[in-house]
Amino acid sequence: MFFTLFPEAATMRPLPAFRLRTLIGMRWFASIGQVLVVALVAFGFGYPLPLGPLLAVIAVGVWVNLYTQFTRKPGTPLTEGGILLHLGIDTLQISSVLFLTGGIQNPFAVWLIMPAMLAASSLPRARAAVTVGLVIACLTVLALLHYPLPWRTAEGFALPPVYRLGLWFALTMAVGFTASYAHGVAREQAKLAAALATMQTSLAREERLAALDGLAAAAAHELGTPLGTIQVTAREMERELEGDLKEDAALLISQTQRCQTILRRLSSAGTTGDAVHSVLSLDALLREAAAPFLDAPGPRIDFRLDPDSGAPLPERLRRRPEVIYGLRNILENAVKFARGTVTVEASWSDRFLTVTVTDDGPGFPDGMLSRLGEPYPRADAPRLRTERAGADKAGLGLGFFIAKTLLERTGASLTHDNRPAGEGGGARVRVVWPLANLVMRPTSRGETRPIEAAQF
Q1: 317-318 vs 352-359, strand pairing mode
Q2: Which of 119, 341, 394, 399 could form a disulfide with 131 if both were Cys (CB 3.0 to 4.6 A apart)?
Q3: Is residue 209 part of a domain?
Q4: Which positions, given as ranges, span the membrane (predicted)?
Q5: Digit-coded pLDDT (tens) for 363-412
Q6: 206 and 115 co-located in one domain
Q7: At which of 272, 294, 315 does a domain end?
Q8: What is the per-residue pLDDT for 450?
Q9: What is the radius of gyration, based on Cα positions, of the chain?
């Protein structure tokens, strides 16, 4: 039964979710609570309790906590083995208290759910199953062997066997369900954190590349003068020298010219690649996003610009890394699964800009459409699309999630579906921006800045 609600959780290893300080704090809370409850039942209600054994068991828990606190740094992250050991000790300590106070008939038997839940949310499946198995084993022993439940009468209080069986079954089910749910939630959080970290790394790389473009432009400007001087000197040497030396001078001239060509290219790249201030046309934006796939073998990429209602073409768009990298991820997926053609169609009105990417591939599997955009779809989703497109093609998942997150940061909204068979079939992804989020306009000084976003 354990983890059957979240079978895909077994494919990822969770990280320990808490530090030693957190565990010590929870232990102090549990120990103080145990002392207060024992005092209330024994002296407040007057119920007979085996105080000696009870206080000895509680003292063992306190001693373990003190030993841990003074021999280890509280801020130390717990290893998986450490979490397993400490939760095992806590399970046995709580079970010992319950053994002396009525077993699973004791209302506080529900506290045995806590170690199982903490293990499921902090450990890999196999290690968490050890703690869950220990908890269920303790519940089974407590259902069969225990001291009488404290009561006012000398013979104590005992529930009917059938009722105790029902209690055992309910507690076991609660442990299994709670552990499964906690493990699933922890895995979803871990996957989301990993996806966000990957997205941030990718975006930081794009920004570093854009900054390097600016540095390259500055270096090209600074190197232009010494290269010009070298070229002039080499021409003078070429006129005066003979034989092999004349050929060497000619080679020097040709190489300086080559250097100047490279520097001009770098200077141009620095101007167009600036992530904040550069401006480019809609066609240039789309082609830059598709640049890695234009000359590569594979499907052809067609570009179409189609205005809505004759609106003028937006020619001054901000070059934002999020837009280019997000569109590139969508195009990468389309190129992977297209049979022959990927179409990038841009349409615009006075208020909105829409970019639609379609391919003539197998399309999205029906069971995947509702989950597309999650950091990692369920394990069967990539398999379905892979089976349609060929065993060598990777499925969707993290790439589309990154694209969606990046584009939504620019104010875009994404929709995805499959084209009808009458239109050629294949997957279709549509991205819509408020035009004000992308268009630049000149200021009174001749500079450019984003148009203030309109209120829609």
Answers
A1: unpaired
A2: 119
A3: yes
A4: 28-47, 53-70, 108-123, 130-149, 161-182
A5: 888 777 777 776 654 444 443 444 444 434 444 566 777 788 888 888 89
A6: no
A7: 272
A8: 47
A9: 34
Q: Which residues contact 445 (CB under 8 A, 6 or more apart)?
A: none
Cβ proximity of 167 and 104 under 8 Å? yes
How many angstroms separate the CA atoms of 109 and 182, rounded? 19
Q: Is residue 134 pLDDT above 90, yes or no?
A: yes
Q: Please, are residues 412 and 433 in contact by the beta-carbon 8 Å criterion?
A: yes
Residue-wise pLDDT for 280-322, tens only, equals 888 888 998 888 888 778 889 999 988 766 677 777 788 888 8
Measuring CA to CA, which residue among 30, 11, 6 is closest to residue 178? 6
Q: What is the pLDDT averaged over residues 29-45? A: 86
Q: What residue numbers bound the domain in which 440 lies?
A: 279-450
By C-alpha distance, which of 403, 411, 410, 384 is closest to 395? 384
Statement to judge: residues 61 and 115 lie in one domain: yes
Residue 176's contacts (CB-CB under 8 Å, 6 or more residues apart) are: 1, 2, 132, 136
Report the number of distinct structural domains present in the chain: 3
Whether 346 contacts 354, CB under 8 Å: yes
Residues 6+ apart with CB under 8 A from 422: none
What is the C-alpha to C-alpha distance for residues 376 and 398, in angstroms, rounded to an integer? 6
3 state SS for 136-189: HHHHHHHHHCCCCECCCCCCCECCCHHHHHHHHHHHHHHHHHHHHHHHHHHHHH
C-alpha 363/C-alpha 334 separation (Å) is: 9
Q: How far is C-alpha 307 from the chain's CA centre?
A: 37
Specify whether 324 is located in the same domain as 245. Answer: no
Residue 310 three-state SS: coil
Tell me the backbone φ, ψ of residue 431, rounded to 5 degrees.
Answer: -120, 125
Residue 337 burial (CB < 10 Å; 0-12/13-18/19+)? buried
In a 3-state reduction of DSSP, which class is residue 306? strand
Domain stop point among 252, 272, 292: 272
Closest CA to 23 of 54, 55, 67, 53: 67
CA distances from 451 to 348, 351, 443 (A): 16, 12, 10
* Token code pair at residue 399: 């790439």
Burial class (CB in 10 A: 0-12, 13-18, 19+), 82: middle
Let me know whether 103 and 246 are in one domain. no
Distance of CA 86 to the CA centre of its chain: 29
User: Would residue 334 count as lying in a domain?
Assistant: yes
The identity of residue 83, as a single letter, is I
